[in-house]
Amino acid sequence: MDMKIQNRRLPAEFEPHKAILLSFPHEGNDWPGKYQAVQWAFVEFIKKVTTYENLILMVRSEQHQEKVVNMLQRAHVDLSKIEFIYLHTNRNWMRDSGPVVVKLPDGESEALHFGFNGWAKYGNFRKDVFVPETVANHLNVPLTKVFHKKRHVVLEGGAIDSNGKGTLLTTEECLLDPKIQVRNQGFTKDDYEQVFADYLGITHTIWLGEGIEGDDTHGHVDDICRFVNEDTVVVCREPNKADVNHLRMENNIKRLKNARLENGKPLNIAEIPLPSRLDFENMRLPASYINFLILNNAVLVPLFNDKNDYKALRVLKEFFPKRDIIGISAIDLIWGLGTLHCLSHEIPA
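Now predict its structure.
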C-alpha cells in the first residue's frame, strides 16, 4: 500500500463542521431574469445555515458586503454567525471552485487546490481559480495544489462524495468521457484512483455511470447519489420508463447493488424519486433532491413544489433522526442549474 494513503483523510459531510462556505451572487448571469428572486433565496438559505452553524460568506467587495448585510438584516439573520471574505468571482458555485479541506494525521487541516476550468464548458472562470487560496488564507491552513503526472488535476467537489472511511462515489460520465467536457485529457480510472488515494485517503472508488439529464456539469454525482452514513447511500430513481433518466438511474442502482465498501461489505441503498420533469424556457433543469446539504444539526433539502417533495423529506428523516430536516424552495435556484449542495462547501471541524 502506498504510504501516501495514510497522510490525508477526506471527512464525510455528515461529520462535524467548522463552518459552511457560500458566495453571495453579485451579478445575475447564472440566473437570467431571476437574479432578484435568487438573491432573496440566498438570504433564506443563509438564514437556515446560520441557525445551525457558522458561515464564511464570500462577497465581491466592501460595497457589496454593505448591500448583502442590509438584505440579511431585513430578514433578521444572525450576523454574529457570519465571517465575510472578499473576492471578485465569476460565479458562486463553491462546491466546485472552492478548496477540498482534508484532515492530516495530527488532526490539522489542509486545503487542497484542484484545478477548475468552468466544468470544461464555460470560459468565464479565470477569477474563480483564486477561491481556494482566498479561503485557505482565511482559515489559516496550508494550501496544496493537486498534481498527477506533472499536471494540475482538474476536479470539482460535486464530482465526488465520501463516507469518510475510505470509499468514494463518482461517475464515469463526468471524469472519463474522452470527448465531452474533458477535465484531464487521457486520465484513466487508475489515474483518478491514484489521485484519490494520494490526496484524499481513498482506498476504494465506486464508479457510477451517468448523471441526470440537464446537468451542465456532465454527470456530477451530487445530483444522483450521496452517503448519509458510513455504509448507506441515497440514490435517485426515475419511475417513468419513457424518461431518459429511467435507464440511467436503473444502471446506477444496479452498480450500487454490486458494489462493496472499503471493508468489503455491501452498501445499504435507499431510493428517492426524482421530482417531475422541470423545464424553463428551452431547457430541462437538473432538479434533484439528492443535492441536499448536511449541516451539524440539520439537513437542508431542495424542494420543487412537487408531489415527491414529501417523499424525499421522509426518506432523509429516516437516516438523520437527530437532525432537523428542512425543505428549501429551489424553484428559482435551479434556473442556475444547481441548488443547495452545488452552491456550498462544508469546512470540516
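Residues 1-6 have pLDDT under 50 and may be disordered.
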